[in-house]
Amino acid sequence: MKLTTIWKAEVITPNFTFEAFGATESEAVNALEKGWRNHCKQYGLNIRPIVEVISDNDWAWSVEPFKLNSCYRDDHLI
Length: 78
Description:
This protein is α+β, with helices and mostly antiparallel strands. The chain is about 35% helix and about 35% strand. The strands form two sheets. The chain has a three-stranded antiparallel sheet with strand order 2-1-3, covered by helices on one side. The chain has a two-stranded antiparallel sheet with strand order 4-5.
């Protein structure tokens, strides 16, 4: 099956923007979680699931599909 869509999971914090990509929504979220764990290790932070940290801090986050070979302007397909 040919891949026509990728998923982007994104979290915006006061200090960083985290973006992760996957062939499915769950793969993108899993990649985001993996990246978050790496970030925590790099900064010596307690490792907690990113969804808990997002909720505790009221950070903006999204998981959205994007069509391959397409153009987006400000995250909207044109």
